[in-house]
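I would like you to sit down with the pair of lines that follows and say whether C-alpha cells and residues agree.
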Amino acid sequence: MAGKKQFDIATALDAAMIQFWRAGYANTSLDDLSRATGLNRSSIYSSLGDKDALFVRCLERYTTRYGDKYDASLSCAADRPLAAVRAFFDITLERIADPAVPDGCLVAQTVMSSPVLSASVAARAREAIGLQHTRLRAALKAGRLHDETAESFAAHLAGVNQSLAVMSRAGASTEQLRAIVDVTLDALAQTLGATD
C-alpha cells in the first residue's frame, strides 16, 4: 500500500523481547518499546497489543526459541541421559555467552518480578519456568530413572539452570558457570550409575 509504512512483526517482536529482557517488564516503558521496535505507540497497540499482551508474546517467543533447543538437546535421553543433560546445559551456557542477547534469562527474571506483574503475566511466567522441569523430568524418566528420582533431579537441574542465568547477570565467569554444571553432572552420573 502506498503511503503506509510496512514492518516485519517478527523483527519487532525480537526487538521488544530484547528490550524486556535487558530492562525487565516494570522498567520498560512504551517509549522504550517504541525506540526498540521503531514503531510509534499507536502502531505498537494496533499491531502488537498493549504492554501486557506484547510482553506475553515476547515471553512465548523466548520460551519457544529456547524450548525447541532444549527439546532437541534432550532427545537422546533414552540412550544417553547424561549427554542429553550436558547438551541441555550447553544451550543455556551458549545463550549466556552470546553477545547478541542480554545476560540472564527472560523467564527467570520475569518470575522474580512476579509481585509487580499482572496476575495473567505472572501466571504465564510461572508456567514457562515449569516447562523446564517438565521436559527434564520426561527426559530423566526416558533415561531410566525411577519416578521419584527423576522428579527430584528434574527440580534440581531446573533450579541449577535458572541459577546459571542469575549468576551470569551477577558477573560469574564462564569457568565458574561451567564448574557448577560439572558438579551437577557428576551427581547425576553417580545416580545414573547406581541405577544401571
